[in-house]
Design brief:
Length: about 160
């Protein structure tokens, strides 16, 4: 499994991508969340932003963080999620049922075509063609996992 990143390393990578403490992109975040809701609704998946999702998207929307040691244009995590593959609608619904909480999309890992989601309890999940995974509780644990490809099998953690 890829190494875990410290909070300082997470912040260093975010800063290199244009983030700074207290960053707030309210109008951009609102537009992205509205498009996500609309795009998923067209596929029969109902999502609604809740405080944990709004806070995350407002702070990180527009950032694109490359994986270390990879071509920055080819392998990255983006925090602007507006459009979805048809398979994501079903995956979001199924995972929300499994964790018994609503979920909202907050990031996309392009090289794996994986979608990161948050629930109202600030727990983060990843849905991928190979299955669903747990990224952790709280944004820094989730960000560290997203930036390294680290994740946990849902059956192996108590969510």
């Amino acid at each position: 499994m890829p190494p875990y990143l410290t909070r300082e390393e997470v912040e260093r990578r975010l800063t290199a991508a244009g983030w700074e403490p207290g960053r707030e992109k309210g109008d951009e975040a609102t537009a992205v969340m509205e498009q996500a809701v609309s795009s998923l609704a067209e596929m029969g998946c109902s999502v609604t932003p809740f405080p944990a999702a709004v806070d995350f998207v407002t702070e990180f929307v527009g950032l694109r963080v490359p994986f270390p040691g990879h071509d920055a244009d080819k392998e990255y995590v983006t925090f602007t999620v507006r459009y979805f593959e048809e398979s994501f609608a079903d995956s979001i619904s199924e995972l929300a049922d499994w964790v018994e909480q609503p979920l909202f999309p907050v990031a996309y890992v392009n090289n794996d075509r994986a979608l990161a989601l948050v629930d109202p309890q600030d727990r983060y999940f990843l849905t991928h063609w190979s299955g669903d995974y747990y990224l952790g509780k709280g944004r820094y644990e989730a960000l560290a996992c997203l930036m390294t490809g680290r994740h946990y099998d849902l059956e192996e953690v108590d969510v």
